[in-house]
Amino acid sequence: MSKRRRREYLIFLDRAKAAAEAAVDSFNRVNNPYRDEATLILLSNGWELLGKAILVQSHQSIKKGQRGETISAEIAVSRLLHQKEIQSHEAETVQQIISLRNAAIHEYLPDTPDEIMHHLLFFGCKFFREAIVRKFPSHAKGLERNYLSLSFSDLTTYADKVQKLVSRMKKNKFDKKLIWLLERGIEFDGNSYITEGQFERKYQGKKRILPHLRIGEFIKKVDMVRIVPVEAPRNYTADITLRKGDARDSSLPVIVKKTELEQDYPYLTKELGQAIGKDASFVAKAAAVLGLKGDAKYHQAIRASKRGHIQRYSEAAKARLQQRMQDQPDFNPYKVAQMLD
Q1: Residue 232: inside a domain, yes or no?
Q2: Which residues pair with 300 in a beta bridge?
């Protein structure tokens, strides 16, 4: 008895997963002079095959013309968006990957900052995995693996690099070309790309360029990723703080702060209570109602076991509590907590 042939959409899906994983391998390979181009080609291929897997499973034709050819990657992704299999910000990210891939295949890829490649690869793979989990949950096995990425440079974000490239566009034709390639991916209408001339007319005669490009809206609405190398010396914990940046700046930097726990947060809960003449329960409740817990200026929670944490407080926390009790001698954190409830 002949072996049953694997369903066609599952063949597409298997090849899609293999292509996406090969893209990660290509990017992280130590000796790869064609790294960016190969990564974009493989990741685009993964998305094209995933799109076709979803369409074939839904009994939709992926044929194009009369010669037995199938639709392109950009058309496949556009159809996924139209059928609400993926969201608009996901489609725009993937279409940028495909646009850069097309440039790499048919001419050449301009020098692309690592931050832009990191963003496209990270979110391209993240959305790829999420699409499979949504559509083919029983075939998501193996997509939970983690990969190590080394970085020794002081990198920023996709948004930051895009802003800098746009600011240099009028003087640097290669920066302009890269922004056009990204823009045309975002602008893809399901049928064709905008030309370089159409792209230039968007900002012709304008003093500020970014507000007139779709990529300007894109960086405002999507999450950013930044590769941050953190080396934690012995007896240090690594804390990474994300802070909200200026509304006019989409780069949203990541701040890495090295902390000497016992020096910067010298008080355990009971010790802080003794310092201000109260018990540990009072300190814990006051810290909660005053918003000290979770604020790095006042508090750090140190993991001590699978479920337990040790609470440590700073001199600033002590001063804040003392000031509150001086300003309000009858301060009762338990009563405040009840009122809040």
Answers
A1: no
A2: 312
Q: Kindly state the tokens that stand for 249.
A: 């700046």
Whether 172 has a pLDDT exceeding 60, the answer reads yes
Task: Give the angle subtended at the CA of 170 by the CAs of 169 and 176, to the nearest 5°.
Answer: 35
For the cut 70, the answer to whether the pLDDT of residue 291 exceeds it is yes
Q: Which residues span the domain enclosing 116?
A: 8-221
266 and 176 in a common domain? no
**DSSP-based three-state secondary structure for 45:** helix
Q: What is the pLDDT of residue 1?
A: 38
The alpha-carbon radius of gyration of the chain (Å, integer) is: 26
DSSP 61-83: --EETTTTEE--HHHHHHHHHHT
**pLDDT tens digits for 85-109?**
999 999 999 999 999 999 999 999 9
Instruction: State the pairing for strand pair 63-64/239-242.
Output: unpaired
Tell me the C-alpha to C-alpha distance, in Å, between residue 272 and each of 193, 259, 276, 282, 324: 64, 19, 6, 10, 14
Return all residues near 74 (Cβ < 8 A) that are at least 6 apart: 95, 98, 99, 102, 188
Q: 146 with 73, same domain?
A: yes
**Residue ranges of E strands in 215-295:** 239-242, 254-257, 267-268
* Residue 105 lies inside a defined structural domain of this protein: yes
